[in-house]
Amino acid sequence: MTGPLHGLRVFDLTRILAGPTCTQLLGDLGAEVIKIERPGQGDDTRKWGPPFAKDADGRDTTYSAYFLSSNRNKRSVTIDIAQPEGQALAKRLIAKCDILVENFKTGGLARYGLAYDDLKADNPGLIYCSITGFGQTGPYAPRAGYDFLAQGLGGMMSITGDPDGEPMKVGVGIADVMCGMYAVAAILAALHHRTKTGEGQYIDLALLDTQVAWLINEGLNYLTSGVVPRRLGNEHPNIVPYKVLPASDGYFILAVGNDRQYQRFCEFAGAPELAEDPRFKANADRVMNREALYALLPELTRGKTCAEWAEGLARLGVPSSPVNDIAQVFEDPQVQAREMKLTMPLAAVQGGQVDLIANPIKYSKTPVTYRTPPPGMGEHTEDVLEELLGLEPAEIADLKGRGVV
Questions:
Q1: How many domains does the chain divide into?
Q2: Residue 352 falls inside a structural domain
């Protein structure tokens, strides 16, 4: 079987996380992804460790865990686009591609003749997606952008963390990841437009823009009320009770979504009177009186174990769960049943295989495919140049000798 994007080819000029997240997802969906890396340097994240995957002798390889996280289903080709011959090679490969994704600083590829305006006349069907920190316009456009900055500027850190603590970023590069996801959605929509019209187009995506977009309800809470949201820790601004609570042996999550669930929780907790208390009877009342309710709950919740709460409430249709660490995540029976850990062969590492996080998409007709593990730097240079451009081994050897590839 082949994925739904089988037959499409991506010229991948991205590195770090936002761009590689986008292109890995396109690869998972069946597209052929050609990852372009600078000879001798490669994607910055190849060096972002420890941890690194180990070789058969227990030594660190060039495969950092960070690089492994977002680079499967890609073929690595090294080209020095700073050299005219490298630019010419890149243009010949781009002519064979449907999609180009890049995350150079604004205007960075123009100096190499690889900006959209340089390519669109010869490649009218090309979908060209630029991912930057701040976009192609506006006063911040020239600045380098990082996930941390996007979370700070975009408001996420102001609503994350303990109410009495310092602003806190999310534990993973979520602004990068979400920008990569928006990029995939934009590319797929542009492909649909091209199917109908034959026209490619330019896509301008920014970490900051996408971060602002996924403020979602908290952003609308402000735009609707004019009140600036504050950090609530694990609480929810619009739903109560929605919080991490103590059990007799640790902490569990209680995420009540409506009044009926609240009533069931109170009955299971042995405190039905809390369901009839006028301060707490309806969600709007509970939101207004959250401090009073949260002062009462810990004494009740410490009477059962985490498992008793999670399992007992689940039977009643009340959302609840333990707070897993990362090891427990991959041991969780639901995560295992959904096959969210993926093992792929990779001869360069210890045991000849590497564990990755699987794609969450489940298709009924065109399943996600895992064809190639994250590549070694330049691993596929000769194959791609021979297959797509018809270069002879002697020509490739000459280019290598001169540092072009």
A1: 2
A2: yes
